[in-house]
Give the backbone structure.
Amino acid sequence: MNIIFIGFMGSGKSSIGEALAKKLKHNLLETDALVLAQSGRNSIKEIFSRDGELRFREMEIAIAKKLGEEKNAVISTGGGMIINKICVDYLKQSGIVIYLCTSFEEITKRLEGDKTRPLFKDRLDAKKLFQFRIKLYREYADITVKTNTLSVDEIINIILKKI
Ligand code: S3P
């Protein structure tokens, strides 16, 4: 069974995914890294600026389809993976979905000064995106973990008890 992390940008999907993969001795697969590798671009930002968000989402769908065939991996997804339900359907074929739930205020603190995320340039736009997506994260989650005040180790322990 795979363990799939979903959640907004800055919710800790990569760092918690990495720590959990290490603990379980599972492979860590990151959808952003896989999309980037197949894009021929140097960064996610460059994919957005040169190819457009739609192309990025198409690549995400192709990657989600492939990941649906994986076994025993920890999968950390990009924050927008859930906007195309087909991605969630592919990923759920082989795994359990964990939503890392972090408040917008906490995310704003964590992403202050970040220049790598094309969809977190303007705070108000990002907040609208957050409010829209939160319903989807909740709907698709098998397990939800509130992460605001917890350390990576505490979050991992909660996850290990729940899975
Ligand atoms: C995105 C989140 C990013 C990355 C891309 C789009 C989004 O991943 O996939 O910039 O739509 O929320 P992280 O959630 O790892 O920042």
Summary: Residues 9, 13, 32, 44, 78-80, 117-119 surround shikimate-3-phosphate (CB under 6 Å).
